[in-house]
Amino acid sequence: MSDQQISDVVSGGVRIIGTLRAEGARGVVRMEDVYDTDAADLWRALTEPRRLERWIADVKGELRRGGEFHIRFTSGWEGQGRVDVCEEGRRLRVTTTEQDTGDETVIEAVLTPEGAKTRLVVEERGLPVSAVANHGAGWQAHVEDLAAHLAGRERCDWHTRWEQLIPSYRDLAVARG
C-alpha cells in the first residue's frame, strides 16, 4: 500500500491532518500540525500528568525513560505503557499494551520548533490495518483537543468529534488501499 499524503486537505468540509499507511502487515497513523506555543510548553503538555488529563488521558506511573505507567484515554482505551525514548523537548516514544487484548503499539511524538510555534508529529505504529481509519479519526480528535488545551479552551466531546471525522478517515483508508 502506498502512503496517502493528504495533510491539511479538506474532505467533506472537514480538515484532515492525518495520514494512514501500512508497514508490512501492520498499520500506521500519522498526525502532523503546528501549534501556537514553544517546544518547552508543548513538551510539558505531552509529559505532565495534570496536563495530559486535560486533553487526552489519565496517566499514572513513572513518565521517565524506562518508566512504566497505566493510561486511560478520553476515548475509553485503557492499558499499560513503557517510556522507551525521552529526549526532553524533542522526542518521546512509548510502547502501549491494550488492557483487554494485549495488542501492542508504539506511539512516537517528535517536536520541531518553528519560530515561536512548534510542529508536532505523532505516529502510532503496529495497528491492525483494519483499524487505521478508527485510530486516525481518534488521533485527530485527540490532537485537536491538544490545540484547545494549549489555547486555554475545553476539550471537545471526543466521541462526537470521532463520529464527525470517521467518514473522512474511512475514505482515506479506502484510497490508501
Automatic annotation (TrEMBL):
Residue ranges of every copy of the Activator of Hsp90 ATPase homologue 1/2-like C-terminal domain listed in the record: 37-150
Pfam families noted in UniProt: AHSA1
Matching InterPro entries: ASHA1/2-like_C, START-like_dom_sf
Signal peptide boundaries: none
Protein family membership: Belongs to the AHA1 family.
Protein name: SRPBCC family protein
Taxonomic source organism: Actinacidiphila polyblastidii
